[in-house]
Write a structure and sequence with these properties.
With 228 residues, the chain is of the alpha/beta class. 32% of the residues lie in helices and 23% in strands.
């Protein structure tokens, strides 16, 4: 993530709290927003009390310098509205939105979200995987390769010797234009860079996390990943 930018988490309920825990574990800069001040009674991180659909509250949270907006509000109408406002106020931000109902997924995408997470779809995939792959004693890899977004997945690719994108910057790679997918993060020497900046140069041994459809992932693998 860019050093002068941060993430904003709209909604500090059960989902928002878990996201904040992950962000804290990775020592990422963020601001949480929620209408209920009591939710922040023991908070040891930056937060703003207010409505995530209010432009003034988003300004207070620093949306002008936010690289990513994560919307986890409980009402889909609020999610749609917050997505619209967030996209309008920071057009180049990456927006992840939670869909409480499957019926709202298309509307949230149309409002400007880059990726929409449906809790019911994720839960269904998890239950299906438990049923089909887990025994009573073997469930260590339960959360591997689960698609987190409707029609969208996150896959990691190791850059081995011979990969044509080793030594190439994010802006030169231009994945969104070429394939429609996007680099979400890069792991290098056990350190993770979220939303790497345009001049970030990929190196041999990097693990690149790419967000896109199954078809886009296959295109990325065929074009840019070379096995040992």
């Amino acid at each position: 993530m860019r050093t002068d930018e941060h993430l904003i988490v709209l909604g500090y309920g059960d989902v928002g709290k878990r996201i904040v825990e992950v962000l804290q574990d990775h020592q990422l800069s963020f601001v949480a927003v929620d209408t209920n001040e009591q939710n922040f009674s023991n908070a040891d991180f930056p937060y703003v009390v207010g409505d995530g659909t209010d432009e003034d509250i988003l300004k207070e949270a620093g949306i002008d310098k936010a690289s990513t907006l994560i919307i986890t509000l409980n009402d889909d109408n609020d999610v749609i509205f917050a997505t619209l406002i967030g996209r309008g106020m920071k057009p180049d931000s990456l927006i992840f939105s939670r869909a409480n109902s499957v019926r709202s997924i298309d509307k949230i995408y149309k409002a400007g979200a880059d990726y929409v997470g449906s809790l019911s779809i994720v839960a269904g995939q998890m239950l299906a995987k438990i049923t089909s792959t887990c025994t009573k004693y073997e469930c260590d890899d339960l959360f591997e390769d689960i698609v987190l977004y409707e029609g969208i997945g996150i896959e990691k690719f190791h850059l081995h010797k011979g990969s044509p994108i080793v030594g190439i910057s994010i802006v030169e790679l231009d994945l969104v234009k070429k394939l429609g997918c996007r680099v979400l993060g890069v792991e290098r020497n056990k350190e993770v860079t979220i939303d790497p900046h345009d001049l970030f140069v990929l190196e041999l041994g990097d693990v690149v996390a790419v967000v896109g459809s199954r078809e886009q992932m296959e295109l990325f693998h065929n074009a840019y990943v070379t096995k040992n």
